[in-house]
Design goal:
With 185 residues, this protein is of the alpha+beta class. Helices cover 44% and strands 24% of the residues. It folds into three domains: 1-30; 32-127, Umud Fragment, subunit A (Ribbon); 137-185. A seven-stranded antiparallel sheet has the order 1-2-7-3-4-5-6. The relative contact order is 0.14.
């Protein structure tokens, strides 16, 4: 039974590491940024609770219809919305109008992107944002760390206990054999 638990735990750990690599490390290596979608303004294109993966592209490559993630004026939280129009400011820089697909009206702001590159939506993994959001809660993180640690500890204790019992049994049997041999002489 202990081996089954050990193998199951090993497979579960390998799976978790694989998922972490797949969802966090590999996208970063290929130039993607990830965002947890907390609102429904982009339904049905991008679902609430999904993790959106955005590819960083040159601002010059952005077109009407692209979905971008940006920080609106006078806000600190990023928004993922569709570009609905492009104009130029007095210096000739692009200024973007945006709107969420589920919103009836365009956003009340115009967006001037500060850098030479911008995060443009590529794909999403539905519901993963709920998991990542749950992991920001201390009790959930504690549970995610404590339960595997407890399982490892119990598994180790059971293994040590079984080995000690087995060793004691071997010593007892050896002593009995020795006593039997001595008694026969």
């Amino acid at each position: 039974m202990s081996r089954v638990v050990s193998w199951a735990f090993t497979l579960l750990t390998a799976f978790a590491i694989g998922v972490a690599l797949l969802l966090i490390v590999i996208p970063m290596v290929f130039g993607y940024e990830r965002y947890v979608i907390t609102g429904g303004s982009m339904e049905p294109t991008v679902h609430k609770g999904a993790v959106a993966f955005d590819k960083v592209v040159p601002v010059a490559d952005l077109r009407v219809g692209d979905v971008i993630t940006f920080v609106p004026p006078e806000s600190s939280s990023p928004v993922t919305h569709r570009i609905t129009g492009v104009t130029r400011d007095e210096l000739g820089r692009p200024v973007y109008s945006t709107q969420g697909d589920a919103n009836e009206h365009p956003d009340p702001w115009q967006v001037s992107l500060p850098g030479p590159s911008q995060a443009r939506y590529s794909f999403q993994i539905p519901y993963l944002g709920y998991v990542l959001a749950a992991l920001t809660l201390r009790p959930v993180r504690l549970l995610v760390l404590a339960v595997p640690a407890l399982l490892i500890g119990v598994s180790l204790l059971v293994s040590v206990w079984r080995e000690a019992v087995s060793e004691a049994r071997r010593e007892r049997e050896a002593t009995l054999r020795l006593e039997t041999v001595e008694a026969e002489e």
